[in-house]
Specification:
Elements (H helix, E strand, L loop, with lengths): L9 H5 L10 H19 L8 H12 L4 H8 L5 H42 L16 H15 L3 E3 L4 E3 H4 L19 E3 L2 E3 L5 H10 L3 E10 L10 E11 L4 H16 L5 E8 L2 E10 L16 E10 L1 H6 L8 E8 H9 L12 H8 L2
Parallel strand pairs: 1-5
Antiparallel strand pairs: 2-4, 3-4, 5-6, 6-10, 7-8, 8-9, 9-10
This protein binds zinc ion (ZN).
The site of zinc ion has 8 residues, from loops.
Length: 371
């Protein structure tokens, strides 16, 4: 039981008197005085000492059915007729005093309890902190990172370029003049006269040669845009592009760089196949095929039973491109290779539908981040 001072506790204050029956008016007056002072003592206490339940106990003690007040009211009819009026006046006076005091007291206790509850709710340092959900990288961003790391180790500098591009950097400088049939290969978003959304990251090659000069060893990853949309094509996708320009660069340099790069990407040496192809900005040009890592060449569903996966394109930089970018093809030569990151991300993380990369489903990213 709570102790209010050295020598009195709340339970003692709330004890009922030994006998509440009065045999005379003066005795009644004494009992009423006692009851009044007892009440004054209780309601004079700090409200923070009382819980709401305890405040209710106080109310029951002073004005409830079994309180002395109620006993005295009931006993009124036993008084002789000439004393009844006086006794009634005294008891009713006490009644209104007790009711006012107790009501005030209970309200104060309740307000204090409510304020305390609000304050506790505001800053409760004992509660466990809410779970913090950290974000995770998008699968394509993860793939970009995992492709750029080995390139950095191979001595490539990672550079960036504009996504809104001048026609010159996207086409002209890369040996695709306005009447060139190769423009047909890329369904382009034309933004304004002379401005396009870049259709490949190869546009960064021209920027690099013209702004940085040669020799060069650069890699670039970024968004590219084409006006196409079906089950296997989306209007925006990410490419990664590499360019090396130096004296005496040959196909042998390209091949050994590709071997080293894909060995790092797959975590072990993989078989590569260069298949003759055509790109306006390289000559000769080739498609890069990597042996299927599911079936190791015997044929399966993910390689469409060919045993090979198409990864991207490569070639020696076309001398016309070198000339247009201010590099002397008599002194310098170079190679370039590039690939779509989305497809690599799909095969790397086993994602079946290309469109799921664009649905913004956080579960997909979170799942991959846990790997
Ligand atoms: Zn296969």
């Amino acid at each position: 039981m709570m102790t209010l001072s050295k020598d009195i506790s709340l339970s003692e204050l709330l004890e009922l008197p030994q006998s509440a029956a009065a045999s005379s008016l003066s005795e009644l007056q004494n009992l009423i005085d006692d009851e009044r002072s007892r009440c004054m003592k209780v309601v004079g206490l700090q409200v923070n000492l009382f819980s709401e339940a305890q405040a209710d106990d106080v109310r029951v003690r002073f004005t409830g059915k079994k309180s002395p007040l109620q006993d005295w009211l009931k006993a009124l009819r036993n008084y002789p007729a000439d004393e009844r009026k006086d006794a009634g006046a005294k008891i009713n006076q006490l009644k209104s005093f007790l009711e006012t005091e107790i009501e005030n007291f209970v309200v104060k206790c309740r307000l204090f309890a409510e304020e305390k509850k609000l304050a506790d709710e505001r800053i409760d340092l004992t509660l466990p902190r809410p779970e913090l959900r950290l974000g995770s990288r998008h699968p394509v961003s993860l793939a970009v990172q995992q492709l750029l790391e080995p390139l950095k180790r191979l001595g490539f500098t990672v550079i960036d370029g504009p996504e809104l591009e001048r026609d010159f950097y996207n086409f002209e400088a890369l040996n695709i003049p306005s009447d060139h049939p190769a423009r047909e290969m890329q369904d382009t978003f034309f933004v304004a006269s002379e401005w396009v959304l870049r259709t490949h990251t190869s546009s960064v090659q021209a920027h690099a040669m013209m702004e940085r000069g040669v020799p060069l060893r650069v890699a670039c990853a970024g968004f590219t845009y084409r006006n196409e949309l079906d089950l296997t094509h989306v209007p925006t996708f990410r490419q990664i592009e590499c360019l090396v320009i130096d004296k005496g660069i040959t196909l042998a340099h390209m091949r050994s760089t590709l071997d080293a790069f894909f060995a790092e990407v797959f975590g072990r040496p993989v078989k590569l196949r260069l298949r003759s192809s055509y790109f306006p900005f390289t000559e000769p040009s080739a498609e890069i095929d990597v042996q299927c890592q599911q079936c190791f060449g015997s044929g399966c569903r993910s390689c469409k039973h060919t045993g090979w996966l198409e990864m991207g394109g490569c070639g020696l930089v076309n001398t016309r491109v070198l000339e247009r970018c201010g590099v002397d093809p008599q002194v310098y030569s170079g190679f370039a290779f590039g690939m779509g990151v989305d497809r690599i991300a799909m095969s790397k993380f086993g994602i079946a539908d290309l469109r799921s990369l664009f649905e913004g489903d956080v579960l997909l990213s979170r799942q991959l981040a846990l790997r």
